[in-house]
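Lab notebook, bench 4. We co-purified these components, and the gel suggests they stay together. Before we commit to crystallization screens, I want a quick structural picture of the whole thing.
Request: model the full complex, all chains together.
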Amino acid sequence: MLTSQRKALIAERLNRDGEIVAKTLAAELDLSEDTIRRDLREMAAEGLLKRVHGGALPLSPPLPDFAARQSLATDEKAALGARAAAMVAPGQVIFLDGGTTTAALARALPRNHAFTVVTHSPTIACELERHPTADVVLIGGRLYKHSMVTTGAMALEAIRGLKAEIYFMGVTAAHPTHGLTTGDMEEAATKRTIAENAAATWVLLTQEKLGRASPWRIMPLPAATGLIVPGGLTPEALAPYRETGVAIVEA
Amino acid sequence: MLTSQRKALIAERLNRDGEIVAKTLAAELDLSEDTIRRDLREMAAEGLLKRVHGGALPLSPPLPDFAARQSLATDEKAALGARAAAMVAPGQVIFLDGGTTTAALARALPRNHAFTVVTHSPTIACELERHPTADVVLIGGRLYKHSMVTTGAMALEAIRGLKAEIYFMGVTAAHPTHGLTTGDMEEAATKRTIAENAAATWVLLTQEKLGRASPWRIMPLPAATGLIVPGGLTPEALAPYRETGVAIVEA
DNA sequence: AATATTCGTGTAATTTCATGCAAAGTCAAG
DNA sequence: CTTGACTTTGCATGAAATTACACGAATATT
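Here is the predicted assembly.
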């Protein structure tokens, strides 16, 4: 067995079982524990796993750590979310994208009047479990686990069957010339379809997404109704975006 | 079991149950109490928990619904879930109902072979976010927040469009003569439709659901393939169910 | 106040770790 | 085919970590 094969096996086991026990694996592969331990050490050095006494564990603990997720620019996202939530009028139908930024928006949604939230993200749906006045409609389809949104023909068909008044979009990057982009092709197509079926599209952007680009293009900037960006950015930083003609709201 | 895993388990239990009893946990993990106590001491030193006589408590006061969470008979559900998960064969398409019992099943699903999980519950979908080999298909529709499942025409249409090999159903009550029942009319109809589109229907039942009935009937007992019930029930308690001809598996 | 648990420390046995080193295997240039 | 550089593996060794048991002190229960 080649070293690289063995390391691939270790990575797979780690993913499958959530742990590696050096002694057990050594016995199973009929190798000395030293070899396994060496592999684990090397993989730990490469940042592929976490070395612990007796074996190794995945880097990200089995359960997604809410604290860690929320700590990713919590304040900034909460501010964006609050600003966006203020746009929601009674009786409206809004579409919420997946992602941590829109999750912050879901938490900030008004609780004193009724409206309908459409989403293709189970995570967003769960956020709204305790919301007193929001009607929630879930778009079905094949779940794309990385972003936790549904995609595919089933999702697209359902999206085409409804018209939302506002679509709050999340992206991985926004660039004055490259437009709005994301990391997955299917996801880009889904977002585009949602935008086509919404009267207005507002894009929530944290600071680190500005001026960057990801592989898959969703649509050019002016195709969106407006961008919601953090407050405190310099006018020079925003100028290239303003020039595209898109509206900009600071949170 | 690796030390760091054990500490993670302690943290999780603390979060879930709101307390750790050193003696109980030692017996459960088949370790000396010293080991558990040492872990608790170390974690207390790291500021992860509060050491008290007999065990440990969370630093932050227990969650408001602490009592409710504890009363959920988590061990019983985990056992049911594990038994049901063992039925899943590679490549199969299974349908998972919503609810805490099926959530336990989702957590216990095999991680060493691939299969497809169809569900109409965003909660279940979120549980499977980290599952390495499960393909997830989400059924869309209007979200019924009380049970966190989608219902309505949109959901029914999507359900009719697929055929699952096993449907793992959750109910609020099962009675020898009143059959399988639940608390919401729409939900009952949805469950019935899912069962009609699955080759086999297994019902997961915790002890407190036996012999009771809820307002809305899903279907009679013999319409299910079988029931999965906790182990240790007396033959007399199960006899009325066996007489209906439904299969019974003890977890 | 009396009794039964539970705690914390010390200690010894076991397991696991990291390092150095030598043997075996791999690969490519000569 | 041979030689030499390089990689991989297994073993030995001392260090570090982990665990269980023992015993007196602290705490809870009756």
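The CA atoms of residues 98 and 121 of chain A lie 5 Å apart. Worth comparing against the SEC data before the next meeting. Confidence is low (pLDDT under 50) at residues 62-71 of chain A.
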